[in-house]
Amino acid sequence: MAKKLHYFDTIIGLAEPIRYILHYGKHKFEDVRYKYKDWPIKSVKDSLPYGQLPLYEEGDKSLNQSLAIAKYVAYYSKLVPSDPWEQAVLDAVVYSIYDFWNYVVAYLKEQDPVKKQELKKQILYEQVEYFFSRFEKELKNNNGYFGGKLSWADFVFVGVIEATNYFLGEKVESKYPYIKALVQNVQNLPGVKEYIASRKVEFV
C-alpha cells in the first residue's frame, strides 16, 4: 500500500517527528515536499481537508493533523501502548508539550519587535522552566522516557525541542540532563540517525 507524507521542504516543523517515526519503523513512504517560499500553492491547498499541511496518505485514505498522523504511524512501529490508560497518559504528555509549543507559536506570529523580544524572554525564563522542570521529573521517574519506554510522545517532544532551538537560537534542553539525553537517544535511533545524516533540505 503506497504511503505519502506531504509537508514543506523544511527539516524544522510539524512533520519532522512523523518522518523520524517512519524512518525508525522502516516504513517505505514518499516524502512529498513543497517549497515553503511558494506557499500557499492554490491547487494543493484547495485539495487539503482544512487547507493545511501535513497530510498523510495511505492507499486511498488520507489523514490530516500532525499529532493524529504521528500517533497513527507510531502504532505500526510499536510506539503506542496497548493499554488504554497508558495511551491516555502519553496523550496528556503530548498535549502538555503542545501547551509549551503554543508559546513559541505566539512568538513566531508576533510582528512587533519589542513585543517579540519580550515573548522570547518569557519563554526562556518562565515557560521553559515551568514545563521543562516537569518534563525532566517525568523522564527521571520513568527510565528516561515518557511512559517508561520509547514511545511516540518522545518523538514529538524531540521535534518540538529542535524547532524551539532553531527559532529561538537557543539550546533549551541544556540545563536538563534527562531531556538532553532523550534528544540524543532519539536522534541516534536506527533509521533516524541515517535520515538525519542524509537530509539535505535547508532550514526555513
SSE inventory with pairings:
Blueprint: E1 3-8, H1 16-24, E2 30-34, H2 42-45, E3 55-58, E4 61-64, H3 66-75, H4 84-109, H5 113-141, H6 152-168, H7 177-187, H8 192-198
Parallel strand pairs: 1-2
Antiparallel strand pairs: 1-3, 3-4
Question: Could you please describe the fold and organization of this structure?
Answer:
The protein has 204 residues and is α+β, with helices and mostly antiparallel strands. It contains 8 helices and 4 strands; from the N terminus they run E-H-E-H-E-E-H-H-H-H-H-H. It has a 4-stranded mixed β-sheet, covered by helices on one side. Helix 1 links the parallel strand 1 and strand 2 (30-34). Helix 4 (84-109) packs parallel to helix 6. It is globular. The model has no long low-confidence stretch (mean pLDDT 94).
What is the succession of H and E elements? EHEHEEHHHHHH
Percent of residues in β-strands: 5-15%
Q: How are strands sequenced across the largest beta sheet?
A: 2-1-3-4
Give helix % range: 55-70%
How far from one another are the termini? Answer: 32 Å
Number of helices: 8
Mean pLDDT over the residues: 94
Q: Report the uncertain regions.
A: none
Protein name: glutathione transferase
Domain GST C-terminal: 83-204
Subunit structure: Homodimer.
EC number: 2.5.1.18
Structure summary:
The chain is an alpha+beta fold. The chain has eight helices and four strands; from the N terminus they run βαβαββαααααα. Helix 1 (16-24) packs parallel to helix 3, helix 4 runs antiparallel to helix 5 (113-141) and helix 6 crosses helix 7 (177-187).
